[in-house]
Amino acid sequence: MIKDFFDQFPYILLGLEGLYLVGIIFLAAKIIMDTRNTSKTLAYLMLIIFLPVFGIIIYFVFGVNYRKNKFYTFKIERNEQVYNEISTYIRETHYKTLENHKGEIDNFLTTVNFLYKAGHSPLSEGNYAEILINGEGKFKKVFEVINRAVHHIHLEYYIYDNDDIGNRLADVLIKKASEGVKVRFLYDDMGSGKIGRTLLKRLKSGGVEISPVNKITFRLLANRVNYRDHRKIIIVDGEEVFTGGINVSDKYINPNSKQYWRDVHLYIKGEAAFYFQFLFFSNWIFATEKIPEISQLYFAHKNKEGGTSLIQTAASGPDTKPSIMLSTASAVLAAKKRIYIVTPYFIPVETVLNAIKQAAISGVDVRLMVPKSGDSIIVNAAAYSYYDELLESKVRVFFYKKGFLHAKTMIIDDNFSSVGTANMDVRSQELNFEVNALVFDRAINKTLEELFHQDMKDCEEIHLSTWRKRSKAKVFFEHLARLLSPLI
Questions:
Q1: H or E stretch including 285?
Q2: pTM score of the predicted model
Q3: Contacts for 35 with CB less than 8 Å, ≥ 6 apart
């Protein structure tokens, strides 16, 4: 019937084709003007040209740059409003720590100064830091700390599941709220799709203040799917913090019913909590569009025991500069002896990839540990496409085989460590809300080094000669996936 109509009125079909062509030209111009990343620009142009209509839909779902949207303009304005309340303390903390410990961070001074200038992130001293291994290590400590909260508990999670650990944590939060502790909980509406209305209702009726970040009405048509809140943060009484790769879900606790889950979290007590609190309040105001009364009790540092760790926070999101990406590249280029990287997804932006290759070629011992099999065929294939050039640059690559490797850690030389939420991929380093804790502490560095060597026993090292023997069809598929990597 439609064919007969256009056969009878061919000029209408010609008109529609002309309008479509004009639309494609204007959309291509918009992509070129709005998308700064060259590879991403080419990927979107390929999509709209070679996948008519469908490619346009993909671009408007995944590709529109919401950094320019008024939605994020509101957040940027509120970030500055929160910062102005605490700017004096941040400035004093940063410069005091620099004066007292400049020799300990000398090689990374450029990285430290960048994070302070780009995101107001101070370097803080006197922190206690502890590495928590896997979910079973994390949650034992989490319950211990939350149970002694007296003023407030702030949580911000990408994934919160309605399962055993999710309900156990909810019970404790409701109990603390009944005792008069202020409990606020932010969750990502995409990642926490399994939280369920029943659990949310139970938390709210129990006195917990809750809000999603980037609320999604129609999940399949979500226009902010790229800008996820991928952070995992707990802040207790303004002085104790948890962050890292472990979400609130039973699958992170071994043994579980599916597979062994290898992950790392970080517990911090001290002045470093100050900046995490700033990040939480910024996102809370963004999510709720309400400004709470922010008293000094939220930023009071009461840790008298002290510690030896210098800590600075690298945070990124659609409202900030790409601080994680640029600080990662800066730290890698500062390495003198070794760089050990652990990440579940390795689809790096060109800046970080080139820094890693440069370090390895210059003689630094660079090692990358990734899961042998990821949770996505396309993502796994895209990651595989990078290993040839890494191996050629003398980077040692290890495939973890015991289970799923989900940790996001990096150690450089003897005193720099990074533990956080950001994967080494485009989405984490350019699009999502992420946070990494940068720790200057030889003991923490040593713990992560020993953990890396222990995990190497469950790894298979790949070598350039054997890696290049893969079938041409497999290599072609991997490079095809890499072309799409800016979009996944």
A1: helix 273-288
A2: 0.86
A3: 41, 44, 63, 65
